[in-house]
Every structure is written in C-alpha cells, then in structure tokens.
Amino acid sequence: MRIAIGSDHGGFALKSIIAKYLREMGNEVIDMGAQSFVPSDDYPRFSKAVAEAIIKGEAERGILVCGSGVGASIAANKFPGIRAAVCHDTFSAHQGVEDDDMNLLCMGQRVVGEELAKEIVYSFVQARFSGAERHVRRLGEVKAIEREFLKEKNKGRQEA
Ligand code: RB5
C-alpha cells in the first residue's frame, strides 16, 4: 500500500520509527515531513500535506503523528474526503477502516509507546472497508454533510 506520513516536532521520533516499520511491511512510504526535528514547527502544514496526498490519489492512506494526535486530526478533517481519527488502540484502528472507511490514522507520540504504535499501524494497514450496506449508508450520510458544508462555503465565496 502507498501511505503518506507526516509529523510535527511532537511526533517526529515516532514518525521515523513508523516509516521504517511500514517499509519493512512492504509498503511504499511518502514522507511529507518534517524531514528533521524542528522544535518550533506546527502540525497543520503536515496535516495539509498528507491530506492532499490522499485527496490527489498519490497515497491510498495516511498516518500523522503529533504530540497527542489531536491537533493533526482536527486539521486533517478540514479536508473534504479525509476521514481521520486518533486511535491509540488496535480495535479502533481496524474497526475505523472496516466500518467508517477511515483513511488517515493519527497518533500521539506522547501517548503511545513504540511497540503499541506499531501494532496500531499494523491493524490500520491490514484493515479494509467492509462495504456492508449499513456502513455504506452511514458513510453516505457523512459525505452528504461534507457536500452541504462545501456548498455553503462556495455560496459564501460567490457572494463575496
Ligand atoms: C506540539 O507541542 C503539540 O501541541 C502538538 O504536537 C500536538 O500534540 C497537538 O495536538
């Protein structure tokens, strides 16, 4: 699988570990940065880079790491087509894909240890959307909300 990854300073060390682990698993990793530890960098631009890689089809899924996973997921979920969630357990990491078609996993380096993080990543990567009718229906409802928001946003632009 082709996976885009990113982190700010708060997740930089864990991102490096995850990148290596993903490659060992046979995945293609697109590293959207940070490329070095910069204590003053901010998470939104890495969320943007990973989200855009998914939206453009350059990556099938993404993984973001910040201190808590929270900021990275909040920023990523602003992008249409992105379904990001913070998962610090293996159940959520695979069930989020199977039921909710989650395409971006977010984790906090200050929350999980290296070995648990690898197991979470493994669960996320192995999982596939079930395609069950009830999940397709719910996903459709989520997408309808997204379209409604975009319509409002575009309407505002036209009026401006
Ligand atoms: C950065 O110190 C930290 O706030 C950030 O990595 C993240 O945890 C935000 O949610």
Short description:
By secondary structure, this protein is an alpha/beta fold. The protein is built from 6 helices and 5 strands, in the order βαβαβαβαβαα.
- Distance, first to last CA: 42 Å
CATH class of the largest domain: Alpha Beta
Order of secondary-structure elements: EHEHEHEHEHH
Let me know the number of strands: 5
Q: Report the bound ligands by name, code or SMILES.
A: D-ribose
Quote the CATH topology of the largest domain: Ribose 5-phosphate Isomerase B, Chain: A
What structural category characterises the helix and strand content? Answer: alpha/beta
Determine the number of helices (DSSP H or I, runs of at least 4 residues). 6
Work out the helicity level.
40-55%
CATH homologous superfamily name of the largest domain?
A: Sugar-phosphate isomerase, RpiB/LacA/LacB
Shape: globular
* Overall mean confidence score, pLDDT: 95
The biggest sheet, with number of strands, parallel, antiparallel or mixed sense and barrel status, is:
5 strands, parallel
Query: Regions with pLDDT < 50 over 5+ consecutive residues?
Result: none
Task: Determine the strand fraction and express it as a percent band.
Answer: 15-25%
CATH architecture of the largest domain: 3-Layer(aba) Sandwich
Q: Order of strands in the sheet with the most strands? A: 2-1-3-5-4
Question: Number of domains in the coordinates?
Answer: 2
Rounded to the nearest angstrom, the radius of gyration is 16 Å
